[in-house]
Amino acid sequence: MAVATEGNQGAAAQPARIRIGPAFVLFAAFALLPLIALALGEPFFLVVLARIIIFAIAALSLDIILGYGGMVSFGHAAFIGLGAYAVGIAAAHGLTDFLAQAAIAIIVSGLFALVTGAISLRTRGVYFIMITLAFGQMAFFFMVSLSAYGGDDGLTLPARSTLLGQPILTSNIAFYYLCLAILVGFFLFSRAMIGARFGRVLRGIRDNSDRMRAIGFAPLRYQLAAYCIAGSMAGIAGALLANQAEFVAPAYMSWQRSGELIIMVVLGGIGTLTGPVLGAVAFILLEEALARLSEHWKFALGFCLILIVLFTRGGLMGGLRRLSGGAGHG
Amino acid sequence: MRPQSYVSQRSPEGEGTGCAFQGISRDARSRRALASIRAPSLANPKSMTNLFLIQLLNGVQLGILLFLVAAGLTLVFGIMDFINLAHGVQYMAGAYFVATFTALTGSFFWGLALTLPAALVFGLVLEFLLFRHLYARDHLDQVLATFGLILMFNEGVKMLWGAAPLSVPVPELLSGSVPLIGTLRYPVFRLAIIVAGLAIALGLYLLVNHTRTGMRLRAGATNRGMLSALGVDVGQLFMVVFGFGAMLAGFAGAMVSPILSVEPGMGDGILILTFVVIVIGGIGSIRGAFVAAILVGCVDTLGRIFGPILLRSLLEPAAAAQTGRTLAPMLIYILMAAVLFFRPSGLFPAKG
Predict the structure, then answer these.
(1) For labelling, which of A55, A116, A320, B115 has a CA lying 20 to 30 Å from the CA of B337?
(2) Structure ipTM over 0.85, yes or no
(3) Model's pTM, two decimal places?
(4) Which of A125, A153, A297 minimises the CB distance to B139?
(5) Does A137 touch chain B (CB under 8 A)?
C-alpha cells in the first residue's frame, strides 16, 4: 500500500529515536493554556481545549497504523464510539469509576479491532480502505438500532465518571489535566513503541512487506498488533469524549468523523507523533473559527482540504521541518 | 394488516424502497413507526408469501439502484486504481437536477432527459478540474481530496436549494399500481425502476463484452500498463468511463427522487452500500457488481423484515424483535466479511 509521502520516505533509515523537543513545547503550552483561559475569564475555551486533547489522542492512535503501519483505515471513529458507549453503558448499570470504564473501553475496542482487523488485513489497497469503512458503518448501525441504550437519540450520562470513588472529574480543570496526562502518556508510549524493534518491523512492512517476509517476519501479526493497540487507544479517547460531553451518540462513530481523523493526521504530518497532535489543534481551531464565520463552514473546510491535498506535502510538521532546515524527525 | 398496505401508502421517506435508505435517514421516530406498520402477522401463511414477494421485489429494486451507482465506480476503481468517495455526490446531483428540471419543465420525463446530459457534464467537469490531478497520487490523497469534495457539495446543495428535503411528484403515466398475483399489487413506478435498470444492465453487458470500447475497458481493468503500452490512450478511455459512470449514478439518483426525499447528504449512505457491493463483487467487474448489488439489495431488505420473524422461533418475542432489529442492518457487512474471508478479492476479481 503506497502511503509513503515525502514526510516518511526513508524514515526507517533515520535514527529510531524520535525527537521529543517540539512535543515537549506543545505539551507545556497545553499545561499552561487553561490557567491563561481562567485568568481571562473564558471558561468555554477550556471545553474547546479538552476536545482538542481528546481528538489529539485519537489522531495519534490513527497515525500509528496510518503513518507508521501504512494502513489507510477509514473506520477509526468506530473505536471512539465503542469507548464512549463502554462508559455510557457501564454508567447506566451503575459502574461509574473511570478506571473500570477505561478498562472496559480498552477491552471492547481492542477486541473489535482484533476481529475486524483480522478480516480487513487479508486485503490490500482500495479493498482495505473500503472494508474498514464498512466495518465502521456496521458498528454505527449497531448502535443506532440498540434502542435499549438510546439508539439514534443517544444516551445521556447521569454524571461524569468518578476517579477512585472521588467525583473530582466534575471539575473541568481536573478533567482537562487527566486528558492531558493520558495524551502525554500515550505519546511517550508510542514513541517507545515506534523506536523499539516492534516499531521498526512495522515501518519495514510499510515500506516493503515482501522483503520483511523474506527476512523472516510475518507482516500480518505485526500489523494486527498495531491495529489493536491503535484501536484501544482510540477507545480511551472515546471514553474521555463521553465524559467531556456527558453524552454518547452514534454520531461519534459516523464515517465523517473517521474522515476528520485522517484529515487531522495528514494536516499535522503523517508518520510523525507530534504531527497528529498539531493537526488536531489546527483542525478543531479551524472548525471553531469557520463555524463562527458562517453556517456553511463545511463548504470552506472541504475546499481547504482539496487545496491542502493538491498543493502541500508533509503537513504542518513538514512545513516546520522545512523551516528548521530539514533535520530531525518529530 | 393486509399486505396491500405495504405498497399502497407512499410516505415521503420512500417506505419499502429498501430499508437501507431508512437506516441512513435521520428521522428515527418515523422509522420506528414504519417498523411497527411492517410487523406482519404470522397467523396468515398466505400473507407471509405475499409479503415475501413484495419484499423480494423491493430488494431487487434496491439492488438495481445499487448496480447503477456501482457500475461506474467499479470501473473507476478497477482501471485507474482510483478511490472516489465523491461518487455519491453524483447520485445526489442527479436527484437535485431532476427535481429542478422537473419543476422548470413541469414533466418528469423532460426533467430526466435534461438530467442525463447535465450529470454527464457535471462528471466530466469534476474529472477535468480535480480527479485527473489525483490519479498519480497515493490512495490517501485521493481519499482526502474526494472527502473534501463531499463536504463541499453536501454544503453546496444546502446553500443552493436549502436544507429542507425536496420532493418530486411521481409522473402521471407511472403512478398507481398493477396487480401481480391475486390481490397483490405493486407500484408501477417501482417496476419501472427495475425495468429501466435491467435494460441498462443489458446494454452495459453488450457494451462491455461485445464492443471494441468494452474490450479496452476489460483490458484496462486487468492490466492498465499493458494496455497503455499497446497504444491505447488510457487517460481518454478513463474520461469516457468517468463521464459514463457519473451519468449512471445521476440516473439512479433521478429515478429514486419520486420515491425518496431529495436532501443534502443523500449520496453518503448509498456510497457506502456501493462500496460493499463493489468489494463483494470484485473491483473492476461489471458482472460482479450486478450479482453483488442484487445480493446486497435482497439480503438487506429481506433481512430486516424476516430476520426478526425467523428469530421469533428461537427466542422470546421481545428479545427476538430487539435482536432482529439490531442484527438486520449489520447483515450486509457480515455478508461482506464472510465473502472476503473466503475470497479476499471478491466473487469475480477482474485482475487475473
Answers:
(1) A55
(2) no
(3) 0.82
(4) A125
(5) yes
